[in-house]
Amino acid sequence: MFIALSVFEIANDMAKEVKEAFIARPHQVDTAIGFLGMKVFSPQENVNEFWVMTSWTDEDSYKVWYKDHMKEAHQGIPKGLKLVPGSLKVRFFDQVSQ
C-alpha cells in the first residue's frame, strides 16, 4: 500500500468552508485505478490545520491520477482561501504493517 499525506494550515479563518468543501467533494478520485480511500483530519488543537491522507494500492496508481486529474480535483477549493506560507507539505509512505 502507498499513502500520500498532504498537510496545510489555513491563514484566513476559512476552516469551516474547507471542511464543508471536503464533505461535499465530488468524489472524482474514488473511481481512480488503485485508489483505496481518503481521510481528512483536523487536529483539535488547531482547527485551521488539515491532514489529507489518500491510500493507494501502489505508487504508480497515485502518480497516474496526480498527473491526469490533480487540477480538476482541486476545483472545489473555496474562493479566497489563503494558506500559511510554508505550511503545505506532502509526504509519501509505504505501509510496513497493519
TrEMBL record:
Keywords: Monooxygenase, Oxidoreductase. Pfam families: ABM. InterPro entries: ABM_dom, Dimeric_a/b-barrel. GO terms for molecular function: monooxygenase activity. Residues 2-92 form the ABM domain. Its EC number is 1.14.-.-. It comes from the Bacteria. The keyword Phosphoprotein does not apply. The keyword Oxidoreductase applies. This is Antibiotic biosynthesis monooxygenase family protein. It comes from Pontibacter ruber.
